[in-house]
Amino acid sequence: MTKRRLRKTLIGIAIAIALIIIARLFLWACVSVERKVNHPKVMRIISHDLTFEEETLDEQLSLALNWFNRRHLSDSDKGRLCERISLIYRARGDELDYYRYLGYALYYLEQSGEKDYSVNIYLDLANFYLNNYSFDSAQRMIDSAMELESFDTIENLQIKSYAYRIWAVLLMHNGEYDEAEEYLQKSLEITALSDTGVFEDAYVAISEVWLARIYFETGRREKCEQILTKYDDSPIFTQVAYRDMMMRDFIIPYEETKCLYVVSGIWDKYDGTIIEDAEELEASSKIIEEFIDICEENGYESHELVTLLRFQTDYPTHSLQINENIYLDLKRLYNELLNMQNAGYAEIIDSQINISMDEMARDNATVRIQRSREIYFFVGSFIMLVLLLGGLWLIISYSYDGLTRVQNRRQFDKKLAYLRKRKQQYGIVMMDIDNFKKVNDVYGHQSGDKVLQRLGQILAKEESANVSVYRYGGEEFAVILGKAVLGSAMSIAQRIRTSMEHENWDFDPDKVITLSLGIAGGSGDEDVVSMADANLYTSKNTGKNRVTGEIKK
C-alpha cells in the first residue's frame, strides 16, 4: 500500500470515528431533549382522573401502553406510567397483568431513585393484603417500604398520609387501637398541610371512616355515629373517578362499620335476646342485606364473610329469620371463596410480581435500562461505517452471529480462554431449543430463523458487565457468567427459560416453544463447558423445559 493510499485510509477511518462520536452525542442529546419534552405529557396522562367505565378502559390502556413502549422516557416517568397501567388492568379484572406492571413500576421507580413512589407501590401491595386479611404479608410490605424510606422523611404529602393510614389500618386489625388512632390522626394532620385540591377531601374521608371503626371497636359509639352521619350522603358513593380505589378504601369500610354499628346497637338494646320490635328486626335484616349486596357486586366477599362470622360470634341473635339468612350466606361464601382461592389467589401470589420483587431485592443493579437504545445506536453506527469504510464490516461480522445478533462461537472460545488463563471463577449456562427440528420441518426454515432471532433478543436483554451471551452453534446458545453474578445463575437461567416458554409466535399462536438448560461453575482448567453440557442433556432426558445443575460460590 502506497503512503498516499495509507494516508487516505487513515483519514477515512478518522472521519468515520468522528461521525460515530458526533452521531452518538447527537442521539444522546435528542433522547435527553425528548425525555424532557415528554415529561409534562406523561404527567398529564397520569394526573388525569382515572375512570373505570368499561367503554373507556381500552382507550386509556392503549394510550398508556403506547407511551410506555414507544417513547423516550425517564425511569421515573416509566415507573409512574406502569403504575397507571397496572390500575387499568386491575379495573379490567386482569390480575396477572396488574401485578406484572406493579413489578415493572417498582423496578423503574427504584432505578430512578424515586423513593416516595417506590414506597407507594409497597403501600398498594400492603393495602391489597389487608383487604384479603393477609396481615403477615401486609406487614412484610410495610416493612419493605420502611426499609426503603422512613415514613417521616417522605416528601410527597399524599404518599406520606397514605403511609400512616395503611400502617394504622394494620395496627387496628391487630387490636392496637391506641397506636392506630394516633397514626390516623397523623395522617389527617399531613393531609391538612396539602392544598393541591386533588386528593385531600377523599383522604380526609377515608381516614375518618377508619377512625369511626376504631371508635366502634373501643366503645365510643357517639363519636362513631357522628362520622357515619357526616358521610351518610357523601358524593364519594357515586363518583366515577377512581371508583375502584374509593370502593376499597372508603365505601366498603364505611358500610362495614355502619353495619356493625347498627346491628350491635340493636343487639345491645335487647341484650342478645329475641328482637321483639318488627321494625328493628326489619332494619337489622335490611342493613345486613345491603352490606351483602354491595360486597358481592364489587368482589369483596372476604369482607362479607368476616363480618357475618362476627355477627355470629359477637352479636348472636335469636331471630330465626336473621340466623337462617346468615347461615345460608356463610355456606355459599365458604364455597365461593374456596373456589376463588383454588383457581385464582394462588396463581396471583405465585405470579411474576413476587419473582421480580425477589430478584430486585437480591440484585437490583444487574439489569441495565439502555439496551434497546444502545442497539439502535450501534445499528446506526454500523450503517454509517459500511457507507464510509466497507472493510470494517469484516471486524463486526467476525465477532457477532449475523442472524441472532449475539456474539458467536469464536468470541465464546476467546472469552473462555481468557478466564481460564487468569484462573478466574466463572459460570456457564448451556441451552438448547427443544424439538427445534420439528419447527423447521412443520413451519419452514423462515419460522425456525424467527425462533432463533427471538431467543437472541431474550438473551440480549440479560447482557451486562458480568453476563455475556453467545450462539454456540445451530439451536444451541451459551451464557458466560462473571463471579459477581454466580449466586444469581439459577434465577437468570429460569428467567430465560420462562421468557421463551411464554413467547407468542405469529406462525402458530398456540405453539409453545421451550428450552432445556444446564448450568455449571468452576475456574482454571476445570472443564466447565462439559459439565454444563452434561447437565443440559440431563434436562433433555428428564422431560425438557427445565434447568439442571447448580453453582456453589
Question: What is the number of strand segments?
Answer: 5
CATH topology of the domain at 407-548: Alpha-Beta Plaits
CATH class of the domain at 407-548: Alpha Beta
What structural class do helix, strand and pairing data support? mainly alpha
Shape: elongated
Q: Mind telling me the C-alpha Rg?
A: 30 Å
Number of helices: 22
What is the chain-wise order of helices and strands? Answer: HHHHHHHHHHHHHHHHHHEHHEEHEHE
Indicate the low-confidence ranges by residue numbers.
Answer: 337-352, 359-369
| Main sheet: strand order | 2-3-1-4-5
CATH architecture title of the domain at 407-548: 2-Layer Sandwich
Helix content: 55-70%
Q: Give the end-to-end Cα distance, rounded to a whole number of Å.
A: 53 Å
Oligomeric form of this entry? single chain
User: What profile does the largest beta sheet have?
Assistant: 5 strands, mixed
Report the CATH superfamily of the domain at 407-548.
Reverse transcriptase/Diguanylate cyclase domain
Query: How much is the average pLDDT?
Result: 79
Strand content: 5-15%
